Amino acid sequence: MVGIDDDPSRGQIVLVGALAIAFIVLGIVVVFNTSLYAENVDSTGTVSSVNQAEQVRHAGGDSVAGVAYRVNQGEFDSNSTVAAAVNRNTSNFSAVWQSLYAQSQPSAVNASLDGSNSEYGVRVFQSTDDDFRARADAGQENWNLTPSGASPTYSDVGEFDVTLDRGSLDTTRTGAFHLAALGGDGTGNEAWRVVWFVNDSSRLDVYVASGSDPTAPSGWENQTGSQVCNDVSVGTDIEVDMVNGSIDGTSCSFEFTDDLSYVPGENGYAVQFVNGDNATGQYDAHLSQTAFTIGSPVTGGPAPYYSHIVWEASVVVEYDSPTASYTRTVTVPVYNSTR
Questions:
Q1: Domain boundaries, the chain
Q2: I need a surface site. Which of 62, 120, 276, 300 has the fewest CB within 10 A?
Q3: What residues form the membrane-spanning segments (predicted)?
Q4: What is the pLDDT of residue 201?
Q5: CA-to-CA dists, residue 126 to 70, 243, 245, 257, angstroms
Q6: Residues 6+ apart with CB under 8 A from 72
């Protein structure tokens, strides 16, 4: 059984850990079979051991990052608690991994998260259906997912999923809920993109505005743009992936941050909710920065909620066989297109 004893969402993370190990074991079997093949065809034990050691290094790093990706769905009030949860899950994975490798030759393998050298981010979320106002901040309908002000925080976006109640959406663009991202165009200019969601007689219309300028003009977050998806057939609840730019998987495609560079001179984007009182649903954004003024505790109180996540995993991989032995530290991003 996956042992996660100190986290407030223990049941959820136990399930997460079990699923993570199930997925990872499938990947390990491929690496294990590859190692057996290399053992059979290589003419020298030394080359075979080096090849297997490299496979262990890559598999260990990717697997621990995969565990972190799934554990990040939980609720954690500090970097240390999420790192501990990852390592509790990783210890189960390492036991399975060791057993698989021991079947091919006498070797020992292990992988663990180096919590002190990993990079952390924040998950900003609303996990129950409600409007999209920042109720933890005096109920603001227009608010910054990535905080602004005198010292704004710009964040990369690893995941950003939104569930919309179709019936809650405005039927005109005048007051429609929309999401706005400020980044760069790669030439030193600021660039922006605004995605609007409009209820069109029980169907969905999506509008996108974009532009660039040395400095974004006042009101850039309310530019109207043009229609990119018309009369999209949707159900009562609409699943929006803002990173991949999709509605219910494949019904509609659009760009948000995908082809934007970072804000010039910064390490991320500025993202805003606009007219949040004209939409109801849930949201879940995984961001690279933790420099947030947390308006609510991890659980309880009004949304948005905040939870610490592992953004980039520093993974210690150990390998020991009769012909090769080493300990390596690899750095692996938790959020990428393959997870």
A1: 10-118+314-333, 133-278
A2: 300
A3: 12-32
A4: 85
A5: 18, 18, 20, 21
A6: 82, 123, 286, 309, 310, 334
